[in-house]
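Field reference: "sequence" (input) and "structure" (output). Example, Transcriptional regulator GcvA:
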Amino acid sequence: MSRRLPPLNALRVFETAGRRQSFTEAAQELGLTHGAVSRQVRLLEDWLGHALFTRSHRRVTLTDRGAAYLAEIGPALDRVAAATARQIEQRSSRLLRVNALATFTLRWLIPRLSAFQMANPHLEVRLTTSNARIPDLNEPYDVAIRGGPDQVPGHVAQEFLSETRIPVCSPALVERHPLARPQELARHTLLHSATLPGVWAQWLVAARAPDLEPAGSVTLEHFYLTLQAALDGVGVAMGPTALVADDVAAGRLVIPFEQPALPARSYYTYVPEGFADDPAVRSFCGWLRRIAQAPRKAHD
């Protein structure tokens, strides 16, 4: 059944004038002239067929019928305003705070993040990086990404990306000095990260070349600097397979030896228990799991 509704703009003006008991104050609140308020009220009165205000020289007063109408209209407009505000809130960006490891963020997350943003335009991701332990984080977060598995009290942890470590280098490097056997690393510079000082020694033991002496060694402060040095042809780095996969696929890095591959900690999402059922958090964590298993070309 169709609704018989009065002119809605006139209804809004009437509610304001009735609540204010003044055409002048209603005009100020609505950004209209006194005459425009008076005309809209008169339009509504003509539509209803009776007066809503008693007008004197300097003031207006609601009639009994006007007061009864205002008592019905005011709450109805409040409900309309509240419903509209909820719709706008749902349309507006929801801030999702993600704190992740620096190298993981640079090498894996950022190249893929546009796919999440396009699929979730209502979510605004605020991404910060830190290598600090989760209990030591000072800034608020909805999702933290760290290695695992770890037990973090008050958090729900879930694996989404597995990892191993293997030597990687630029194609130009192996063109100058081929790497057919681990022993041929003696002609190369080994790149070390200060945060993972023992990885090369572990790999050389696994490769049955524990006493190998490289042509040179370079240690860099952060792991992402070590990978950049490998890309630039400075030497051979121990690359985490997940974080170098894009460079290998693009031919910027090569893997001279498929084996041995050192086991490494997987990547986990750690979500405070209070946010575990948050739709935005669940959407982001689910996307991480799907994208980690998808071919890179699916989200280039």
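The two ends are 51 Å apart (CA to CA).
The chain has three domains: 8-91, 94-163+265-299, 164-263.
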